[in-house]
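fold-stage: in
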Amino acid sequence: MNTLYYEKFLVTFLILAGCLAPVFTASARSKHVQFPDKKILRYQGEFSITGGVTSYSPNLGADFLNGIRWNPYLFTGIGLGIEGGIAAYTAPVYANVRGYAPISKKVNMYLGTDIGIKHWIGHAISRFYAGPEFGFNFEFGKRMGMNVGVKYDIWCIPVSMNDAEVNKSLNTFGLVIGLVF
């Protein structure tokens, strides 16, 4: 597979979705469930399961994200996770910023990113980590919801380790399903 093609497609798709969001969401803003009339700060947590494929192996992960939903359109938080693949386990620690665009009373489109450090467990390697994400949030009430999205993780690692040549990066393209509370 040509990963450069997928990277260009993902970037183009995310930019297009971000530009079109205000066009399709203008009427939904007044109907938002979680922030009906007041602008209040509130805690938002998320437990998510991720699954994806790298150039090296498939992997699965779990993340716990805690933060503040500043208004119906902006969330910031801090996350911690564990990911496992065929070769090793990694632990990302990151900050998350996510923008929401209401589509209907109980559905929001979101675009966000994780930026932080990912540590390779069992090795003394910690490197920069970023993970742009696009998806939809389905609200079940004032305090519960579910996120379904796609994510592209960027993780830069050394070119060689233990006298073995490895990729310059272990980027992952995958799906995210999360319970929001």
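fold-stage: in (second)
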Amino acid sequence: MEYVIIILIVVSTLHLIYDGIISPNKRVEVRYKLFALRDRLRRIRNENPDEISEPVFILLDTSINRSINHISLINVFALLRANKEINNDEALKIEIDRKIEIIDSCQNKDIAIIQSLNIRYLKEAILINMMPLILYLLPIFLFVLIVIFIRGLLEKKFQKLSFTPEERLYSNSEFYSNGFVN
């Protein structure tokens, strides 16, 4: 029991350090990457206004701004919730597919790169925001792996035990001869 308490204290301390120091710094790094990405999009739009249509620019700019504004809220649960909403609402699904099609129809290669980098940075944000949960699940995962490993070892031993002759299995001659019983 004391090992469980020690493990929980260590994991809680790591969570506090990660959530209070490391993750805010990592989020700022990703936010700055997103700012640079948005600036790149705006620079491309200003330099070549004919190559990037207004709808493509607005959709991608809005997408990046949304990523910047909600970076601390992006996690696997938000992703699953959004996926559920999209699957349950046909109009929403059609609208999102239409927006993706508008961006994909743009012939400018920089737009495709910007969109893929935006998605990559969102994945980084998910990993950053989910790390405390991973820290808590790691000891449980290791415990399960150890139990599976030990069970596999014992399975072979029990199989051998089931085929051991009774006279060798239940022989008490050593037990009696070593003076354990008077």
